[in-house]
Write a structure and sequence with these properties.
By secondary structure, this protein is mostly beta strands. It has 6 helices and 44 strands. It is globular, with a radius of gyration of 26 Å.
């Protein structure tokens, strides 16, 4: 096993293995980010996987988004769709999406393009390996095999397309496929394929913590075997590169925390697996589990000539420490949950990996690819991951447009400097899970941090000992404690989902992506209008369901307002739930100051506030909750 280390100021990613251009056994292509920019670099390898030449630069630029998946000649990708296709010789596989429907299409058969899989589900990450009589195709998807419904965890599927265009699949059932497995290691995605000299197959893929190999031969499937040790949470790479080198041997390359790990392995053997005709088309569509729809009722935001929109704007992919490709959060939000907006917020520097300018450009281009102003909005964002308390904690950064740089924690390690730098770019930062990693009060700026994330898969951080739970016990960092000390900000909630059921035992729900939702009262379903609503604190938090909520101060001022008054301020709240409302309350620094019982899915409450702050809280009979951004009242002397 060889290791090509990242090194000081050097980060390596996107390994690809191809036939050598010299007398060595393989060439390794990578993208390298260093002080001069980014470069497409190739190095020769010997049969043990050791570097047999000095790295050679094929292309250098300020930013390189990624490499294509071409078995013979990987090149720098020029489109955000590059992750949706792969080539091997005359064979090509690509993902085609039309709304909620996803198709895997193969070209190279004599009768033209062939659909090998189609369903109303997420499908991604195709891989291909050509043979003398056809091509093996692998991809991952989120469609359950038992009930045909899309779910959280993805698993790899394998197909064979003959030269005549017949679509086949292994006759043997896949071992260890478990979409309900709990714990930190879940899923099997982002495949690569190696074909042995006798027709046996080695399938490589990524779990949430480890890379794996699983063989398929004439006897059926083997058990999965981890490549390397499980080093716990980390920002490893996305795919295993693999290439046969003769004499029953092969090389693999994968990105781990320390660098690119290159390993010489045995190629698969055991004979060609038995195949049967594959089911290609999965008709109809099934709703995602645990995804309640918004109430069928008039929107209370209409009184402001606005609309209440819902979205999850804090989640992760395999570009940091989560699962799945960058397209998936957008597809899941729009077509799976019916949300109005979404953001992918991968860690820009965390656990051994930094997102460089090329990868950042790619992630922005994917967000733009899915942005559909007026129908569905995508935000440009990333997570800045500071030290835990008494350090600055974690903050998500939201930027107003593409083309702006990351402000990295490796360059700007303190919270106040981060907030100032992001504000100068026209964006803002949002602290989250403050009772676990800290509130960073010294960095707070109502303009640079207009809202705080108060609920996620980690729990609710309004108060200590909250009924929704919460990781950590920094009791004086909780949201209400910070409000009592005079800071002002609005509320949002997000999932902080990483693609793991129950968020590996931490979350209170099976589906981590429904543990927090941001609601905004926006003028339009656009990126700009949603960010404006958050800056204005015209937003609220829910525990993951689309509860409708509105607050009015003195008959004309919306939630989030600052009111200067010489008399008590009248506060009214209205809620429409996704199930029966147990109670709707107004909460101030002194506790609950008014409450009312709901009537089925509706509730209303009103009271007066002398001074300070107050927010509305909804509690449903099913335990789901919502919290408005506070009203802030200053009394005239």
């Amino acid at each position: 096993m060889a290791l090509w280390t990242h090194g000081e100021g050097r980060y390596l990613r996107d390994p690809r293995l191809v036939a050598p251009g010299t007398s060595t056994v393989a060439d390794l292509h990578v993208l390298r980010w260093d002080e001069q920019g980014e470069a497409h670099v190739v190095v020769s390898l010997d049969a043990q996987g050791e570097l047999a030449s000095e790295p050679r630069e094929l292309l250098r630029a300020s930013a390189l988004p990624g490499l294509t998946h071409d078995a013979s000649s990987p090149r720098v990708a020029d489109a955000p769709s590059s992750e949706d296709e792969a080539r091997d010789g005359v064979w090509r596989v690509r993902i085609v999406r039309e709304g909620a429907r996803g198709r895997v299409v193969v070209e190279g058969a004599t009768r033209g393009p062939v659909i090998v899989w189609e369903a109303s589900a997420i499908v991604a990450a195709p891989a291909i390996a050509a043979t003398h009589d056809g091509a093996w195709i692998a991809f991952h998807h989120d469609l359950r095999e038992d009930d045909g419904a899309p779910d959280v965890v993805k698993w790899i599927a394998l197909r064979f397309v003959t030269r005549d265009g017949d679509v086949l699949e292994p006759a043997a059932p896949m071992r260890e496929r478990d979409r309900d497995r709990e714990g930190e290691e879940q899923g099997f995605e982002l495949p690569s394929i190696l074909v042995g000299h006798d027709g046996a197959i080695a399938l490589f893929g990524r779990g949430s913590h480890c890379f794996y190999r699983q063989d398929l031969d004439a006897q059926g499937w083997s058990a999965r075997v981890a490549l390397g040790a499980d080093e716990g949470w980390g920002c490893r790479g996305r795919r295993v590169a693999v290439r046969a080198i003769g004499d029953g041997r092969a090389l693999t390359a994968r990105r781990e925390k320390q660098g690119i790990v290159i390993e010489a392995i045995d190629a698969p053997r055991g004979g060609r697996p038995a195949l049967v005709p594959a089911r290609v088309v999965h008709e109809g569509s099934r709703p995602r589990r645990d995804a309640p729809r918004r109430p069928d009722a008039p929107d209370p935001a209409a009184r402001w000539s606005r609309a209440t929109l819902f979205g999850d704007i804090h989640q992760h992919s395999a570009h940091s420490d989560g699962c799945g490709v960058a397209d998936e959060p957008y597809l899941r939000a729009r077509y799976g949950y019916g949300d109005d907006f979404v953001a992918l917020t991968d860690h820009e520097s965390f656990l051994g990996k930094r997102i460089g300018p090329g990868e950042w450009g790619y992630l922005q281009s994917v967000a733009d690819r899915h942005d559909d102003p007026g129908s569905f909005a995508t935000l440009i964002a990333y997570e800045w991951t500071g030290r835990r308390f008494p350090g600055p904690g974690h903050k998500v950064v939201y930027l107003p447009r593409t083309g702006l740089p990351i402000v990295s924690r490796d360059v700007v390690p303190e919270g106040k400097a981060l907030v100032d730098a992001v504000k100068a770019l026209g964006g803002f930062a949002v602290p989250h899970h403050v009772g676990w990693t800290g509130a960073d009060e010294g960095a707070h700026d109502p303009e640079g941090q207009p809202v705080w994330e108060i609920c996620s898969c980690h729990g609710c951080y309004l108060t200590a000992d909250h009924p929704l739970g919460g990781r950590g016990d920094l009791r004086d960092q909780m949201v209400e404690e910070v409000l009592r000390r005079g800071h002002r900000f609005g509320f949002i909630a997000c999932s902080d989902g990483h693609g793991l059921l129950w968020h590996h035992g931490v979350a209170r729900k099976r589906d981590p992506f429904r543990t927090g939702l941001t609601a905004v009262q926006a003028k339009a379903r656009t990126r700009e209008a949603i960010l404006d609503a958050m800056r204005e604190r015209r937003c609220y938090a829910t525990s993951g369901v689309p509860i409708l909520l509105d607050v009015i101060a003195n008959g004309s001022l919306p939630m989030g307002s600052e009111v200067r008054a010489s008399a008590p301020v009248r506060i009214e709240a209205e809620a429409i739930g996704t199930s029966s409302i147990r109670e709707l309350s107004i909460v101030s620094a002194s506790g609950v100051i008014a409450t009312s019982r709901g009537e089925n899915e509706r509730a209303g409450v009103e009271c007066e506030l002398e001074s300070g702050w107050a927010y509305a809280k909804v509690v449903q009979d099913d335990g789901e909750m919502a919290w408005s951004s506070p009203i802030f009242v200053d009394r005239d002397p």
